[in-house]
């Protein structure tokens, strides 16, 4: 992004981020219903990776400042407990993991749950999406950027590392090949 963002630049960024958010939310809901079957973890890895791309775009942009320095009310956010429960059921064996929240400040690992992290990210994203859907792209960008730095970016990054570890371990821990008898 340039140092001076025009309304058109903000609108284009908001549209790109909104597409990532909609894809993430739809993918997360599908996985929580069991639609990914044996591909649950790789699909979640893909969904989280793509939404982190949106976060990186927000992080690389200048700060979004609302003209009146306040966020208009969007009403109650949807209840995502069914998604959280569905994910917890599908991730039962790997739901709990440990993470160092801030590698520059924390020295002790903290326990996390993938299902909680994935839904915490969704909750922050859906709030911004509601602004976007009410034709307030600047408010959506402000919320997505603020919550990326303050909350969902950390949870998405931690979930990405956990999901990556599961996929990498599954792929790298293959049985040793037995030489063919001739």
From TrEMBL:
InterPro entries: DUF5063 (IPR032025), DUF5063_sf (IPR038312). This is DUF5063 domain-containing protein.
